[in-house]
């Protein structure tokens, strides 16, 4: 959701900035812009739509120089228009900035500044440019600092000024910024991906911090404007990992990544002899773990469906009452929390504003707060007092796939660890770990049915509505399958627990309304079977996910996708994959923008 890239060095900055923006495309945007200092003045180019449009414009604009900033905008204040695209300038055009976040008191500030300053956009961000201009008396750092004290809201901000051609100033409050450290060049961006081709050394700015960046130095300051020495960290993702590797879309690549990244999520974290998992990041003593009497899993979207699987696992293996809270609800419902509560925030990006705010609230109320996060060094990863990376690698498609399965994997490991420290037998722990060892191969087996699943999508491409049914641990799978379909193919779909069907939704069924049903061989098999019979009686086409060898299931289905047998708790790791593939093919067949669906952003950093 909005992306920032900045460069200061000796090279031509335009290609670095544009490539950087491409790396941030996954966050979602609707316009883009770039500003470069050419030795005399700062020149800007902006365009609506894709980065390719911006690239075309830069070719006719003679824009060059070794210091520049660039931005992809996802409209919040003001429509999708070129004038609203960043960078924004002050009245003189000497000061130019890019901003992520929302300036909450922008109306008030704009009213005050309007007497002396000329505004050309409808954005909240432009206020910052004029405010800094107003406070500027020759020292840019001072002017930025003073202005930020007058601002309420969130920002990731990078400022450049013609009077200080060797300087970029960055500031962070609520919107992530990462500084990349190079040789006679430095970078700044919303996350580390734009700089991976040039450097692996990064500094993560914290909320309230500012940085003065030249090509040879990075000076960081805390909220009191005191110099702080920040640790330089090494990022271990390489650029190749973030590329398509021959797949037509990131989503398909990421679906096919699952057997590999699943192994990454469990590597070094299990102990077969003791039948348990060891997630060191939990940072809790055995005594503290024993005193936990309630677990709350907080997340949004797909991550919340992974959390629902986690609830089943925690309750079944450890006996600890576990709740799942959608982050945007949790933060406003005055939740009951004490020092015996363990809260996990689950997030791919680690930047989701609602999840972050909910975790802060839980922390304020005294809970143990831990993160289950993918993006290394993200805000949730740093603000929680421990937790675990899910090691899914860069997930660039807006629709989450491999992060979801790895979130479930880590939640299962935590549930096992708590279970073994309480009531779970060694034999059951070992059985679960043995089942884990077979998952990657079983995922591969499902992926080998890609072509058959594509044919099913082809057959149902004209359907307007779908139901997804599951029971028990497969109810979240149904929810996830339904979300995937609607977010990338824009087809209406709903998910229900099988038993709910007769309480209302059944009225919708007809021969025009296909139903996906997850009917694998587990303790609820017979119950699910009855639900499928109810569907068939209404003549709705049935697409079944069934366990290999279940020949009877064929009689109940119009289409059938077989998945290998595994322990019930692990079923979501397998059963979700056909649904991901179905949604993917449906979107491709319907000609949709699979990796960047309309209206959605990868990283939802506003409330
Ligand atoms: O980065 P997060 O995991 O915190 O994101 C949460 C949701 O916004 C995300 O899972 C969203 O639902 C996905 N687009 C689903 O595919």
Q: Summed up, what is this model?
A:
The chain has 607 residues and is an alpha/beta fold.
Topology, please?
Blueprint: E1 3-8, H1 13-23, E2 31-37, E3 42-48, H2 51-59, E4 67-73, E5 88-89, E6 95-100, H3 106-114, H4 125-135, H5 140-149, E7 155-161, E8 168-173, E9 178-181, E10 186-189, E11 201-204, E12 210-213, E13 218-221, E14 227-228, E15 233-234, H6 250-256, H7 258-266, E16 270-271, E17 276-277, H8 286-291, E18 294-299, H9 301-318, E19 322-326, H10 327-330, E20 341-347, H11 353-364, E21 368-373, H12 379-383, E22 387-389, H13 402-420, H14 426-447, H15 450-459, E23 465-470, H16 475-489, E24 492-497, E25 515-519, H17 525-537, E26 542-547, H18 552-555, E27 559-563, H19 571-589
Parallel strand pairs: 18-19, 18-20, 20-21, 21-22, 23-24, 23-25, 25-26, 26-27
Antiparallel strand pairs: 1-4, 1-10, 2-3, 2-4, 5-6, 6-7, 7-8, 8-12, 9-10, 9-11, 11-15, 12-13, 13-14, 16-17
Helix pairs in contact: 3-4, 4-5, 7-13, 7-14, 9-13, 9-16, 14-19, 15-19, 16-19
The site of 5-amino-5-deoxy-1-O-phosphono-D-mannitol has 17 residues, from α9 and α16.
